[in-house]
Amino acid sequence: MLFIRTQAHAEKAINDDKIYKLIDSLRGQSSQIKVDGSSTDWKGIPAFKASREAFVNDGSRDIVNISIAPREDELLILIKTRGRPSQDPLTFYTRLDFIGQHESDCQIGFGQDGVHRLKVYDERNNSETILETVIRGPEIVVGDAVEIRIPFQSLKELLPEKMAKQIDGPRGRPWIRVYTFAWNPKTQKIADYGPAVASFRLIKTPYPLDPPAPHKIRPEFGIRVPFKNKWFLGNGAFGLRAHVNVHGYDFYIMDDHLNPAQNRGSKNNEDYYTWGLQFLSPVDGEITKVTNNMPDRKPLNKVEAAGNNVWIALDSDPDLSINLNHFQMGTIKVQTGDSIRAGEEIGLVGNSGQSGWPHIHMGLVQKDLSTLPISFSNVIVSLNPQADDPWSRDLSIWELRAGVFIQNKN
């Protein structure tokens, strides 16, 4: 076991080194960027295309491409639209996710006179605003493209102290995610969503590429990624709203707008990308408990009910069990007493029990029902859903953190 762990750590270092080299290269390139409304000096900075058409037939608000460069003391953003970008004030908005899990922490609406609107969201309830004020530090220039510069200091002066300490410096999360959208002031509606784009910080390397693991209490060992293709790890361990005091992990598919459904806010399970997909066993073990008769509920409705779930005692350590929850009613293929191998199908993703939308919850549970952290083996970890995400890491073993995309490399 010692050799395996040492080998895994060596391979992780090699893959991290590839990311560090890219960071160092992009840091040099980003230093040449001038905020002048032109994209010519963004050559080489990763660009991410939107996969959806605009909600309205307005090329000036149809976001087709986003690039970001989170530098040492500022965030640079490039927005390209299908037509020449609108010059209307408060057309372009960004939401920034720089701490915690995957939802946005604040939003800035950009005026053309240097006066911008800032909203800061409650970490425990992202739909609630805890601060709404004017912010004057950021810059926006609209030309052939939209260029934005957000000095971190201008945010730190207005953010609550706890958030301000985490936007940059040693307490800053290793990566930042930016959401963009275009507003139509005539209709008072969002005209288009741009892709949600994440990047490692372009600061001097090396630095940790993963946030600290919460409450690490066990040596690493890896289990199999239990799904096909690339999924998102949403709520993670010791969250502020979900899994508050436990090592728990929620998996589902997100598109490049970080939306789990084809229709935003849909109340139909069939609209969600993960609904009805196969979920596989992550371990070799024995099925010790199965619930398969609980109805699936409509998305985004709160209920207090049990979900369809499976418990698997690990062959490698029978005192440990994997708990999987929220399967679609009647789709679980295993029964109590069955043996199962890693990679075999358990059932289909559903929305049973206390579930916001179709997903599978996973936990590693001890006999006393306390939980332990989980690591995946032979895993590709990415910041973005695109197949060619430059920030993908191919790792032999990785302890789970929320807010990233995951797929099996085999």
The CATH class assignment of the largest domain is Mainly Beta
Beta fraction of the residues?
35-45%
Mean pLDDT: 92
User: What is the second-level CATH architecture of the largest domain?
Assistant: Distorted Sandwich
Q: How many beta strands in the DSSP annotation? A: 26
Helix content: under 10%
Rg computed from alpha carbons, rounded to a whole number of angstroms: 22 Å
CATH topology of the largest domain: Glucose Permease (Domain IIA)
Secondary-structure content class:
mainly beta
Please name the fourth-level CATH homologous superfamily of the largest domain: Glucose Permease (Domain IIA)
Describe this structure in words.
This protein is 9% helix and 35% strand. The longest helix is centred in the first third of the chain and has 29 residues, at 2-30. It is built from three helices and 26 strands. Strand 18 and strand 19 form a beta hairpin. The chain is globular. It has 410 residues and is mostly beta strands. It has two domains: 18-200, Immunoglobulin-like (Sandwich); 222-408, Distorted Sandwich (Glucose Permease (Domain IIA)). The protein has helices at 2-30, 152-156, 161-164, and strands at 48-49, 63-70, 74-81, 92-97, 106-109, 116-122, 125-135, 139-142, 146-151, 175-184, 189-193, 197-200, 222-223, 231-233, 248-252, 278-280, 285-291, 308-314, 320-327, 339-340, 345-348, 360-366, 371-372, 375-382, 393-399, 404-408. The model is unreliable at 1-6 (pLDDT under 50). The strands form four sheets. Strands 13, 14, 15, 17, 18, 19, 20, 22, 23, 24, 25 and 26 form a twelve-stranded mixed beta sheet that branches. Strands 4, 5, 6, 7, 10, 11 and 12 form a seven-stranded antiparallel beta sheet that branches.
